[in-house]
Amino acid sequence: MTNRPASQRVLITGANRGLGLELARILIERGDRVWGTARSPQPAALAALAPEGILTMDLAEEPQIVAAMSKLADRTDGLDLLINCAGIDARAVGAAPAARGPFDLDGDTFTAVTRVNATGPMLVTREALPLLRAGDRATVLNISSQLGSMEVAATSGNDTAYCVSKAALNMVTVKTAAALKDEAITVVAMHPGWVRTDMGGDAAPLSSVESATSIIDVVDQLTLADSGRFLRWDGTEHPW
Ligand SMILES: NC(=O)c1ccc[n+]([C@@H]2O[C@H](COP(=O)([O-])OP(=O)(O)OC[C@H]3O[C@@H](n4cnc5c(N)ncnc54)[C@H](OP(=O)(O)O)[C@@H]3O)[C@@H](O)[C@H]2O)c1
After folding, report:
1. What is the pTM of this model?
2. Residue 77 CB burial class (10 angstroms; 0-12, 13-18, ≥19)
3. Which pLDDT tens digit goes with each residue over 87-111?
4. pLDDT over 70 at 17, yes or no
5. Mutation test residue for ligand 1: of 199, 210, 215, 234, the one with most atoms within 8 Å of CB
6. For ligand 1, is residue 18 a contact (CB within 6 Å)?
7. Collapsed DSSP state (helix, strand, coil) of residue 122
8. Which residue from 11, 19, 144 has its CB within 8 A of the most atoms of ligand 1, so it is best to mutate?
9. Domains, the chain
10. Is 237 exposed, middle or buried, given 0-12, 13-18 or 19+ CB atoms closer than 10 A?
């Protein structure tokens, strides 16, 4: 049993590789109508899934977000699920792997991570609002991280910019959930587990299939009463 509509209209950011690609694969295989975003105009792995559509979008570029969402509005009259999945750690904006502590990064590099991981999803959700309002009990899933938790990051996580950006995304989730509760739009943050992707690396215990399958099972069961929560991929509550 699921609380979700039969063939959902879904938008996934960062659907060209990693967790976003796996989420897209599973949702397309079960019959959902999936649009995926990528920075590359020709993301081969995503195109191979034959999604409903591909949108070009760099989350650091607000005009690209606005333009992509405007294109989407020409192709669908509603969205039932928005998955803000794309994300980076500080290595992606030039930080040395071993130099990501609070005093290692210059200000612009530090800010660039939050720009992609927290500001970007907030802007995507803002631009998706008319479509979400027209959706069937729409849900916004913000893929966060355990490292956005004050409790967890106090003792682990060597990438301060990443931890800060995911804490910011958690706050974006709380504020978005509060702003949209009266409109029956559910907004949650989720730690996907430590997953074997380019970001997670080979030592991670979870495959992207395991993580994505569990995430979708949990999202299928969400109701408005869950809005504003921070969950793990298996549906358990994550501490802030
Ligand atoms: N893997 C883990 O263990 C783990 C743990 C906790 C949380 N997470 C979160 O899970 C999400 C997915 O991570 P992943 O492991 O799948 O990472 P990944 O394999 O490195 O994939 C990252 C995705 O984000 C996209 N992206 C990067 N910069 C972007 C930008 N400026 N604008 C738009 N898209 C951009 C990438 O596109 P390009 O190909 O164009 O770079 C790619 O599609 C992220 O939010 C991450 O923080 C992952």
Report:
1. 0.98
2. exposed
3. 999 999 999 999 999 999 999 999 9
4. yes
5. 199
6. yes
7. helix
8. 19
9. 9-232 (3.40.50.720)
10. exposed
